[in-house]
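Hey, can you fold this one?
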Amino acid sequence: MNETLLRQIPSVDSLLADAAGQGLVMRFGREAFLKECRGVLDDLRSEILADKLRAPVEEALLRENLFRRIEHRVDEKFLSGLQKAVNATGILMHSGLGRAVLSEPARQALDDTSLAYCTLALDLETGRRGQRDARVSRLLAELTGAEAATLVNNNAAATVLILHALAKGKEVIVSRGQLVEIGGSFRMPDVMSTSGAILREVGTTNKTHLRDYAEAIGPATGAIIRVHHSNYRIVGFTAEPEIEELVELGAKHGVPVIDDLGSGALVDLREFGLQTEPMVARSVKAGADVACFSGDKLIGGPQSGLIVGKADAVNRIKKDPLARAFRCGKLTIAAMEATLKLFLRAESLKEHHPLYRMLSLGLDELQRRARRVERSLKKRLPSEVQVSVVDDGSQVGSGSVPVETIPTKCLSVKTSTMGLEEMAKALRLGRPPVFSRIHKNALLFDFRTIQPVEDKVVEEAIRSLFPQT
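Sure. Predicted structure:
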C-alpha cells in the first residue's frame, strides 16, 4: 500500500512546471521554491512510510494541497519575525510587544533618516565631525534642567556605563531593598557588578536609613546609588532616604550620587489619574551627579537609556571606552529626538503621544467602541458564543506604576465549543497576530490598548475563530 502511494507523489519537475508552481517561483524565486518543494515531498514520503498522514490520502496527494503546503513553508521563511501585532491585553507598555508605540513624528523621522544619508555626526557649520548625541542632549537638558546629557542603547547599559566611568574598582553603596530583578531575569546586582564596581549593601529589605549610608562611606567609596524599585513595591513598615538627603550626604563626603530612575518621568502622571513615577527633573534639581532612565517606557521612544546630570560627570561617562560599545545608531537617535520634542509642548501630549493618548481615553469613548464591535459580532456569531462588554483594569506595564490599574472597557468572549487557550493561540497565529488576555473564564479584549484603526481587525479576528458564520 505504501509503495503504491509513494509512486503517486508528483515529481519536483512536474510541480515546477505547473502554473501554480510558476506563480510561486515568481513570488519567491526558483531556488526558494525548489528547496521547500523538496522539503514538502520529503515530509509527505515520511508521513506515508510512518502511516502518519495528516489528512486522508486523496487530500494529501491533491496538487492544490501540496502547493498550499509549499506556499506555507516558503511564506514562513520570508515572513518577517517582527510582525505588526494588535495589543488587546490592556498593558500599555507591553515588553513582549515592543513597549512604547512610537508617535507619528518619530515614525516620520525613521523614514526620513533611513531613506537617505543623514547628518548623524557632522557639524553643518564647520563640515567637521561632531557629536552624534548633540541634538538629543540639548533636548534632554532643556526638559530636565540638567547641565549635560547623552544616550545609550538601554537603561541597563546606562547603569553599567555610569558605574564603570565613575566607580570602577570602588565601592558603590546601595540599599538592600533596591537590589531588584528586572525583566528577563536580569538582576541589578549582576548588572552593577559587570561594571567593575564593588557593591556595598546597606540597610534591610524594607528599611534603609540615611545613617546606614553614612556609616558605610569610607576611603574605598566610589559612589552612592539609588535604584528605582521598578516592578514591585514594599508597603507598610518601610523607610528610605529621599534623593535630596542622599545628595546632601554625598556632597558632605565628596561622593557622587547616581539615581537610576527606571522608567523615569518627564511629566507628572497624577495628571492622568495615576500615582506618579520618579520625576527626572526632581533628581536633577536635587543635585544628583547623574540620573539615568529608559527611553522606551514613559518617554515613549525607541529602546534606549537616557543619561542626564552634571557636565563633568556626563563628560567622563561619554569619554569612557564602554561608551562606544553602548552607543546608539542613527535610527534610535532620530526617533528619540522626535519623541522628546513632543514634551516641549506637554499640554498636547494627549493628542500627539500614543502612550499619553491611551492614558487619557475616557470610559465613554471606550464603551462606544466596544459596544460597536459587540453589536456586530452578535449578528454574525453562533448563539453559543457569548459576547459582552465588561468593566476591567488596564496596566501601564514595564515596571511603571506596578500596583495601579486604570479603569477600562473590555470585550468579553465566552463559548463552550472552544477552549480559551485554544482561542487565544489561534488569535496569536493570525495575521496580524492579536494578543488578548484570559480572565474569569473569558477571553478579554481591552479597548484602551487596541488602536482605533484596529477595532475592525479585532472583530474579524474573533469572527475567524468560528468560520461557519
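Residues 2-78 form one domain. Let me know if you want another pass with a different chain boundary.
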